[in-house]
Design a protein that fits this description.
Layout (H helix, E strand, L loop, with lengths): L1 E7 L5 H16 L4 E7 L16 E2 L10 E4 L4 H10 L1 H12 L3 E5 L3 H6 L7 E2 L6 H7 L4 E2 L5 E4 L2 E4 L4 H13 L2 H10 L25 H12 L7 H7 L4 H12 L3 H16 L7 H7 L5 H10 L1
Parallel strand pairs: 1-2, 1-4, 2-3, 4-5, 5-9, 6-7
Antiparallel strand pairs: 8-9
Length: 304
């Protein structure tokens, strides 16, 4: 049986903890044999939002073996900095378990704890984009990647902030089981777009949105929601009560892309996501993403 020990720091960020925890809880529901345990540095723990926890065992009571996993969620950064100065014994304990081939995972700024334990030396790693520069400065021997969701370096995993912990947990679960099983877990969690380590923290659904034109935002939303449809510029122009020529002009001014270029980027993003689903054929992916054929999809994927 796999065992996962969650080490809950003071002022923990709730979603950093709850996201990965729910992934593995859902896996148990579908029959995966895993045991979840919870530990901390002391008995009185509150989340960053002020939610108190019940009695939690001290981390020194953990008993793990090779193949098990330790997961540390992120915390309020000011509180975390205090832990970096006072929990020297914990960092030694963490390094010892890493040497015993226990998998060590961090979510968000918990990567700083792994750094203090010496686990990021000469390794690729990541953290929340707000803390990437600080992580690199504090641990110059680390190879901090700023725009990825999570990174695996041997038995060390680090992930970006908040919801990226879910992506990390799903990826780990896939290594333990299969893509088909993890697809069921993602669907159970209503996480329809399971992202891989290759996906950036910022992506097409958020990019090209730093303008204030409500009509263009409306058109962008409509394109995303109707990705499989053959949307003409005329139809999009009617949506926002303007002419096709004017829409083309103001769309390019706002986003620096043509409408067709934006549609293609949206379709490619969804296609790359659906490729993670083992039940989907290339033909089905092409159809659901609005491409005319699998050949057209493959050609555009190759071009981009």
């Amino acid at each position: 049986m796999k065992k996962i020990a969650f080490i809950i720091p003071p002022s923990v960020e709730l979603l950093d903890l709850a996201g990965p925890m729910q992934v593995f809880t859902e896996a148990k529901f579908y029959g995966f044999n895993v045991h979840l345990e919870f530990y901390s540095f002391g008995q009185k723990i509150k989340s960053s939002a002020g939610l108190p926890f019940g009695e939690i065992y001290h981390y020194k009571k953990v008993k793990l073996q090779s193949g098990d996993l330790i997961l540390i969620p992120g915390a309020n950064f000011e509180s975390l900095n205090k832990q970096l100065e006072k929990e020297k014994h914990f960092f030694k304990w963490l390094a010892d378990y890493a040497e015993k081939e226990v998998t060590i995972c961090s979510v968000c700024n918990a990567a700083f704890m792994l750094g203090e334990a010496g686990l990021l030396k000469n390794k690729e790693c990541t953290t929340h984009w707000r803390r990437a520069e600080a992580l690199q400065k504090r641990f110059p021997d680390a190879k901090v990647l700023e725009d990825v969701l999570f990174v695996k370096s041997d038995n060390i995993y680090t992930s970006a902030g908040i919801s990226a912990g879910i992506d990390l947990a799903l990826a780990i679960l896939e290594e333990w089981t299969s893509p088909y099983f993890v697809n069921k877990i993602a669907r159970g969690l209503v996480v329809y777009h399971r992202r891989s380590h290759k996906h950036a923290q910022q992506h097409i659904y958020l990019d090209y949105r730093n303008h204030v034109n409500p009509k263009i935002h409306q058109v962008q939303d409509f394109i995303i929601e109707n990705i499989a449809s053959d949307l003409s510029i005329k139809k999009l122009a009617e949506l926002v009560n303007t002419s096709p020529r004017n829409l083309s002009r103001i769309f390019k001014d706002a986003t620096e892309l043509t409408i067709k270029e934006y549609q293609t980027k949206i379709r490619l993003e969804k296609a790359n996501t659906l490729k993670n689903n083992p039940e989907y054929t290339v033909d089905r992916i092409a159809s659901e993403c609005g491409f005319k054929s699998a050949r057209q999809l493959q050609r555009i994927l190759k071009t981009h």
